[in-house]
User: Fold this.
Amino acid sequence: MSPIRPALMSALLLGAATAAAQPLVQLDFPHTPDGRYVQVVDLHTHSVFSDGRVWPYMRVREARREHVDAVAITEHLEYQPHKADIPHPDRNRAFEIALEEGHKEDERPIIVLNGAEITRSMPPGHINAVFLEDANAMLVDDYRAGLEAAAGQGAFIFWNHPYWRKQEKDGVAKMQKVHRALIRDDLIHGVEVANGADYAEDTLAIALKYDLTILGTSDIHGITEWDYQERQGRHRTVTLALTADTSEDALREALFAGHTVALVKETFIGRAENLEPVLAGMLTVSTEQEEEYDRLEVRISNSGPLPLVFRQTSERYFYDAHDIFTVAPGSEFVVHLKEVAPGDRVTLPVQWLNAYQAPREHLEIDLMALAVTPGES
Ligand SMILES: [Zn+2]
Ligand SMILES: [Zn+2]
Assistant:
């Protein structure tokens, strides 16, 4: 397929991000058609207990405001620049403070996960473990022993920002022997294809090649509203996890199973099998044949929190829209397809332009497969 020109793409997708401050979006996603939940999770955050700039309680307060369902507190194990002011002998402390806030009654429930970030030069670079029982067990010289301790606690472990310019001067992720060994030994389960404002195509290729769970995280150090509202988009970078229910166990299960989509700057990144149900949960399509003309009215509505951008690739033209169109969040897009006579079989293939299933490769679906014909509910 022909990739859309980068300039056009950024005009379409990043317009909101580059404009003046806009309100942060509340990330409420509808269920998938097969009844799964779309939990919005941020598995990488910092507080003053490592090099962050806020008290851990803020991480939960922010998550509530943005309707993020789960947040992990992942302080650097080895990098403790505030140690003189905030001694940190117990590496579970930031999590415990956040958890108190997470358990507040009469507030939106938030899953708070205990985590830690191994912070080494490359290789192996930075590696997060979440769902820890005791982060202190990872505080050892041999990072591999630390990862084995985390795995022994049932942790989900992932490679952070492998393309990071401070560790890879050219900004390109490189899979080394060390990483292959960690994946082989079940000590790395996922990888960040998006971190903060970054999205790395090379890292997406690695995730697909090595069958790693695809993740997006904020790696927030300051205040999400300041970072994302003004510079990086209208929502923080997160992972969508397709889960059986709203529990922590279901989240863990979905992460290990790779049932995720990374979300960065209003763009969805994941395997087709996960992108499809997320999209189908948000979209409703209905059609009506016009009596007077050979036109089919197509109504496409988006109950998700973000714009959905498509390019239709049908042989038929739209009567009243361009081939590239956007269905705004919480709204309906109405268009007419030409040269459709009563009884004609119609397909409406589209590329979902703000979704990638592989580097430079958009998800392609037939919108008519989602269509509800009159009489159905
Ligand atoms: Zn890091
Ligand atoms: Zn970090």
Q: What stands out?
A: The longest strand covers residues 349-358. The radius of gyration is 22 Å. The chain has two domains: 21-270, 281-372. Residues 44, 46, 117, 219 surround zinc ion (ligand 2) (CB under 6 Å).
